[in-house]
Amino acid sequence: MADIRDLLREIQIRYGSVEAFCARLRALTDDPTVELPALALPVSSGRHRRID
Question: In whole angstroms, what is the distance from residue 40 CA to residue 50 CA?
């Protein structure tokens, strides 16, 4: 229980309230995720090429 109280006290010291802390978290996670393009893997023609 002491860990929870310590966490809540720290949140209140830094952010003023739990609601302000939650709003900050939401603001940080509301940004869209950057999607990276898929990599096109080269067709292997070397010695270890898969033979079907």
Answer: 18
Round the average pLDDT of the chain to a whole number and report it.
83
3-state secondary structure of 15: helix
- Do residues 12 and 18 touch, judged by C-beta distance below 8 A? yes
Give the phi and the psi of residue 15 in degrees, each rounded to 5: -115, -10
Give me the percent of the chain exceeding a pLDDT of 90. Answer: 42
Domain tally, the chain:
1
Give a yes or no: residue 18 inside a domain. Answer: yes
Kindly state whether residue 5 falls inside one of the protein's structural domains. Answer: yes
Q: What is the mean pLDDT of residues 25-44?
A: 77
CB-facing half-sphere around the CA of 30: CA atoms within 13 A: 6
